[in-house]
Write a structure and sequence with these properties.
Blueprint: E1 4-11, H1 13-18, H2 25-37, E2 46-53, H3 63-74, E3 79-82, H4 85-88, H5 92-106, E4 109-112, E5 117-118, H6 129-158, E6 171-173, E7 180-182, H7 187-198, H8 203-212, H9 218-224, H10 242-249, E8 258-260, E9 263-265, E10 273-275, E11 282-284, H11 294-300, E12 321-323, E13 331-337, E14 340-347, H12 350-353, E15 363-365, H13 366-384, H14 387-423, H15 429-471, H16 481-487, E16 488-493, E17 498-502
Parallel strand pairs: 1-2, 1-3, 3-4, 12-16
Antiparallel strand pairs: 4-5, 6-7, 8-11, 9-10, 13-14, 14-15, 16-17
């Protein structure tokens, strides 16, 4: 069998910081390449490389790991080799699922060199006990290591060290001493913003002043200093916005105080953060050189609630709407008649507020947008829920797969019998070679058909699983926030069209 090998390597942030050569990407590649070179059944294979740098083995949300799995599903690779199982992943249960279920289904061979594991030698068997035990240890080791790292970070913070990667706007990190220092170029901008707000200027007025006077933003300074290569938004529209000021005005570092761990993540991998307990918060005064006085900081933050960004939970399209022309989030306003709200309007105000000349003042009523999104969603559901046809196709494909598998087994049996016929001198050597080659070609062609069928079955079964979620909403009479959250990634509004980017794959 001709293999298309995926060489997968991974190092965590800890590995990078420790400069551990034994775990480096280069070392892992050298070991794997040497293994391939010294094994005759794979030494002539095509090789593809996948590397994740700075990613923990406890999560499988890694860019190149996800690409690896996607390529395996598409049949671009049919063999995966890693230095050891810990490089593949440290979640014992998840790793076992891939080795025992996913890869056999995709007909992908998996080799872990240091664990002496080769799925070709373990067919129809569960993961061997010693390998399972090793992986279980990796999992516990990873969790223990994570706790130690967090403890170490907290201890450094209590000693006044700045532990974050990026320093706040107005400061810079000394390349030699690694200490935080005042940036003479940007600190005056910070001080000016604090003073303007203290004088009673609104955030919009401050941003208006900064943008009119072309005061560079933090991102522009980062690009200028080579800290980032690409501006995260539109390169031509580097402007100050209200939330840039909110995060700045609430940061105690500007009066020389270090405050860490004010919030913490919820358990179970949830994105939401909650307020930390008092004993978890670290506060160290007079740690950094101050840009402003404590008096000015507390004057600006006297009424702190007014700076908190309001979460528009009543807005059905909250955090989903963007202008298709400039890329910025849309604003909304209530439409009233005789002092009663009858609708909402979403609109882009970048042209007026942020001086983006090439943008258009796009706008749409909420009722109209809800109708468009709801109808589009129902159409997608109806396409997905043609159950009879989907099940029929899946059944037919599985029937064809059984026939082809049986055909491969028959061809292999015929090939073995052919050798016995040759040994019994019933055919000549030349005839044997010709017929043997014909059988091998037939086997290879049939196996390719099997691989394509497996991919189709895998795709259809994924659609079937997703359809179970769609069924929940098929009888809905109107669009809800829950539906938008579950299925809409982003909505781009143009002056003449609405472009919906769904969070599921369209068929």
């Amino acid at each position: 069998m001709q293999y298309k090998i995926a060489v997968y390597t991974r190092i965590s942030i800890k590995d990078k910081k420790c400069n551990d050569e034994t775990q480096s990407i280069k070392n892992q590649r050298d070991i794997i390449e040497n293994f391939i070179k010294n094994n005759s059944d794979i030494c002539s294979s095509d090789i593809f490389y996948y590397s994740d740098e700075g990613y923990s083995g406890r999560t499988f949300k890694r860019p190149y790991f996800e690409k690896l799995i996607e390529d395996a599903k598409k049949g671009k690779i049919n063999c995966i080799i890693v230095k050891d199982l810990s490089r593949f992943g440290r979640d014992y249960i998840e790793v076992n699922t891939y080795l025992d279920k996913v890869f056999p289904f995709l007909n992908v061979r998996f080799i872990s060199i240091n664990d002496n594991y080769d799925s070709n030698n373990n067919k129809n068997k569960t993961l061997e006990l010693d390998v399972s035990f090793k992986n279980l240890l990796y999992n516990y080791y990873s969790k223990d290591l994570s706790n130690k790292v967090i403890t170490g970070i907290k201890n450094k913070a209590r000693q006044g060290e700045y532990i974050r990667i990026n320093v706040p706007f107005g400061y810079k990190k000394n390349s030699e001493t690694k200490k935080v220092e005042i940036d003479e170029e940007t600190a005056p901008i910070v001080k000016m913003i604090f003073e303007m707000v203290a004088e009673g200027k609104t955030f919009s007025e401050v941003c208006d002043f900064l943008n009119k006077n072309k005061i560079p933003t933090r991102s522009e300074f980062k690009m200028k200093n080579g800290a980032v290569k690409n501006y995260p938004h539109l390169k031509q529209n580097k402007i100050w916005r209200n939330f840039d000021l909110i995060s700045m005005l609430q940061n105690e570092i500007y009066m020389g105080t270090l405050v860490l761990f004010k919030t913490k993540k919820l358990k179970c991998g949830h994105r939401k953060r909650i307020k930390s307990d008092e004993d978890e918060v670290i506060v160290k005064e007079n740690i950094y050189p101050p840009i402003i006085s404590e008096e000015l900081f507390f004057k600006v933050n006297a009424n702190r609630k007014k700076y908190a960004p309001t979460r528009d939970i009543k807005n059905i399209f909250a955090y989903k709407l963007k202008c298709g022309h400039c890329g910025y989030a849309l604003k909304n306003t209530e439409l009233k008649k005789h002092n009663e709200v009858f609708d909402k309007k979403y609109y882009c105000n970048s042209k007026n507020e942020l001086y983006i000349k090439n943008c258009k003042n796009t706008h749409i009523k909420e009722s109209e947008l809800k109708r468009i999104v709801f109808n589009s969603f129902r159409n997608e559901i109806l396409l997905r829920l043609e159950e009879d046809e989907l099940k029929s196709n899946l059944l037919n494909l599985k029937t064809d797969l059984k026939k082809l598998s049986k055909e491969v087994n028959n061809l292999k049996s015929e090939k073995r019998n052919l050798y016995e016929i040759y040994l019994n001198q019933q055919i000549s050597k030349d005839e044997y070679v010709i017929q043997k080659n014909e059988k091998e070609i037939s086997i290879q062609n049939t196996q390719k058909q099997i691989q394509l069928l497996q991919e189709e079955i895998f795709a259809l079964e994924n659609i079937t699983d997703e359809n179970k979620l769609f069924e929940k909403y098929i009888k809905s009479s109107e669009l809800t926030r829950e539906m938008v959250e579950a299925f809409v990634d982003c909505i781009y509004l143009y002056d003449d069209a609405v472009n919906i980017k769904w969070s599921f794959k369209k068929i």
